[in-house]
Amino acid sequence: MRKRATTIYDIAQHAQVSVSTVSRVMNGHDTVHPELRTRVEHAIHELRFRPNRIAQTLYHRRSNTIGCILPDITNPYFAQLFLQLEVGASELGYTVILGNTTSNPDLEQTLVRSLVERQVDGLLLLGGLTNHPEPPEAGVQAVREVAERLPIVAVNGDLPGVDLLCSVTSDEAGGMRSVLTHLQGRGHTKVAFLGGDSSVTSSLEKLAVYREFYPNALPEWVHFTGLTIRAGEEALHRLGQASQRPTALVCINDLVAAGVLKAARDEGFDVPGDFSVVGFDDVFLAQVMCPPLTSVNHNYAELARQAISALVAGMEGRKPERVIRVPTLLVERQSVSG
User: Fold this and answer.
1) If pLDDT is split at 50, 70 and 90, which confidence band does 61 have?
2) What PANTHER family does the database record attribute to this sequence (predicted)?
3) How far apart are CA 22 and CA 283, in angstroms?
4) Would you say 227 and 255 are in contact if contact means Cβ atoms under 8 Å apart?
5) Best label site of 14, 30, 220, 320, fewest CB within 10 Å?
6) Contacts of residue 161, Cβ cutoff 8 Å, sequence gap at least 6
7) CA-CA distance, 162 to 154, in Å (whole number)?
8) Which tens digits make up the pLDDT trace of 197-249?
């Protein structure tokens, strides 16, 4: 049979103090005599006491938990960002509960409400609604209702019309400019844009920067095929039908770049000999691709630190800046010639 869980009454009896004294020690009050505090602490250690988190949440109206909702934890970009968010939250004494929507808008709404019911102290929203150019009204309303009750921080996204606490974003437009400037500095004037999704604001933002740099680019050099490895393969196959071959390919993310490199190998192209390839996100795969991929790093640790700091500020009643932008970092590797 399982042993009965230790209670504060057991602690009080073991330490030969009152239950109220145990409660004051556990809640950090400084009115307890040092000798009594020591006896209580020894009793807690000896009896291996673990506080009842549900009871503590009801008493303090704080659960020390943060909800985090994202579209796909198997995507290395979200995995890398979530890891940094979890580390940052842990350093401040918070536990993160993950909600994975599998890119399903209905499930996203359900998870938002479910995490609120679990008494989280705040929410982090990544992707999904906050990265959609025309988010569905039902989803917006669900977040709007929650934002009236708890602080919500969007990471690399936003939700206009909703009273979010803060939007913390990496400067993706700046990152795109740094990539294109790098290519121009290496002598590349014929550059294609591969991958992307018209239902994702960051794809549209990157494409807009590309248009600034190359307003006269051939239409057949732009292929909005998606965000996956398969999308990269498809984009390169389509590019093969172009009347002119570009000397460099800018990919919407590193997964698309991985697909481009795979298709290039299958078709007998040399990278960067025949054309250069760059990615975006600088996920761990970028280092082990062949050749290693030049990419843009979101400055993940700083992005996460800013997001967690903003959310904790909101949970403590302080108001951070509405929009916080974190600079990205260009990481040069061997996939660019010149």
Assistant:
1) low
2) LACI-RELATED TRANSCRIPTIONAL REPRESSOR (PTHR30146), TRANSCRIPTIONAL REGULATORY PROTEIN (PTHR30146:SF138)
3) 48
4) yes
5) 30
6) 140, 144
7) 11
8) 999 999 999 999 999 999 999 999 999 999 999 999 999 999 999 999 999 99
Taken in order 55, 57, 58, 60, is the CA torsion positive or negative? Answer: positive
CATH of domain 172-298: 3.40.50.2300
Hey, which CATH number is domain 64-171+300-328, 3.30.1130.10, 3.30.70.20, 3.40.50.2300, 1.20.1440.170? Answer: 3.40.50.2300
